[in-house]
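Dear colleague,

Thank you for sharing your sequence with our group. We've completed the structure prediction you requested, and as agreed, I am returning the results in plain text so they can be pasted directly into your records. Please verify that the sequence below matches your submission; if there's any discrepancy, let me know and we will rerun it promptly.
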Amino acid sequence: MKIPPYLKKGDTIGIVAPAGFMAIEKMQACIETLDHWGYNVVMGSTTHSQSNNYFSGTDEERLNDLQQMMDDKAVKAILCARGGYGMSRIIDDLSFKKFKKNPKWIVGYSDITVLHSHLYSNYNIASLHAPMAAAFNDGEAENPYIQSIKKALEGEPAAYEAESHEFNKAGTAEGELVGGNLSLLVHLIGTDSDIKTKNRILFLEDIGEYLYSIDRMFVQLKRSGKLDRLAGLIVGKFSDTKDTERPYGKNVYEIIHDHVKEYDYPMCFNFPVSHEKENYALKVGAEYELEVGGDKVTLNEIHSRLVDQDDEEDS
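Please find the predicted structure tokens below.
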């Protein structure tokens, strides 16, 4: 696994909007915080979009903006302004020829799960599942979840704790961390961006889904073998779930537990990865140790090998 170079003060972070539209005013707190951290910030053309529909630009505009940031050697990390929907419309047209030789951190979650999974599955390059621009608003720049982005980008190994949950299954697991948004991971099954889960620690979260849809997506994960031979499972928060007029009859964690309780690997529920404020930065592809105990859960990063000259020559 290739770990992109960590950042130092004076490095440049690019901000792009490769999927849904976001007004640039809502990015201002993020820009100011990155500047306060000591980074230069450059804004992609999609952050100034005049789009009058859902997307931050046409497929071609979003593709070109992201491609330019990926290829620019002066840009050391790319932070996505927001997710929403749109990455899967452009992922197959992105060129990774230059990015493979000069990888950099790509930061985001939700729809950016597509890009994280594609980088991991095809190029063995780690990326950062973490809060995006809007999470910096309303004075939140000092919260531990935003601060976890800074620590991750600067190379401080992650060490997180979470409370116990009644559905947790005790044990210890080690493996590369993969995952992200449940609906996007299911969307990627059978594509070039599909992820391998065997002997990995899988993390999942989502927002705004009907309870029956979450059940259906877990059926798809099981039928496709994604849950069979995990090292461990991290179930994050599932925000704003919706029910049908005739109630489904179970809450979201009960639904998920019914699907995974047969497995012997360690698992935890209600871990702070989500569409809410509680969303720790997680390095997709990095090695972690998950320890699920009776009173708490710990997730510790155990290995992050930087890209070296041999990696670049082998690319």
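Summary note from our side: Residues 159-303 form a domain with the Glucose Oxidase; domain 1 fold (CATH 3.50.30.60).

Kind regards,
the structure core
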